[in-house]
Specification:
By secondary structure, the chain is mainly α. 46% of the residues lie in helices and 8% in strands.
């Protein structure tokens, strides 16, 4: 995989922050996803990691979650998806303003941040039919 090409498909100011976002939204925590998105939006990725992983600097679960998130991020990029975080300027403005805005968007094609419409296709509980 061409690293410079894959980096262009990750829409985040910092790849490490994006890895932290993926790890934090997947982790088991009493925080709801809307609460996690609000922490991310108002305080950033490092505050989200601290809240989800209880401010533990050397947590083996955190390091394992980060390693899995980094591997998955590489797979998504290799599959042709662009990954955009709620912190990114390319994140659609109107979607960012909704109560349960997703922390990450996976897209193919161009995102237009100030566009009037966004189409979201997917399921929180996907299954094979």
């Amino acid at each position: 995989m061409n690293t410079s090409n894959s980096q262009a498909m990750i829409r985040s100011a910092d790849r490490a922050a994006l890895v932290d976002i993926v790890a934090a939204i997947r982790a088991t925590s009493p925080l709801t996803q809307p609460a996690r998105a609000e922490i991310l939006r108002t305080e950033g990725a490092s505050a989200l990691i601290a809240a989800v992983f209880n401010d533990t600097l050397l947590d083996p679960h955190l390091e394992q979650a980060r390693a899995q998130a980094a591997a998955d991020l590489n797979d998504w990029v290799a599959a042709g998806y662009t990954v955009t975080s709620l912190l990114d300027d390319a994140y659609p403005v109107y979607l960012a303003g909704v109560h349960q805005a997703p922390a990450l968007l996976f897209s193919q094609g161009q995102l237009i941040p100030d566009d009037n419409g966004v189409s979201v296709v997917g399921s929180r509980t996907p299954h094979r039919t």
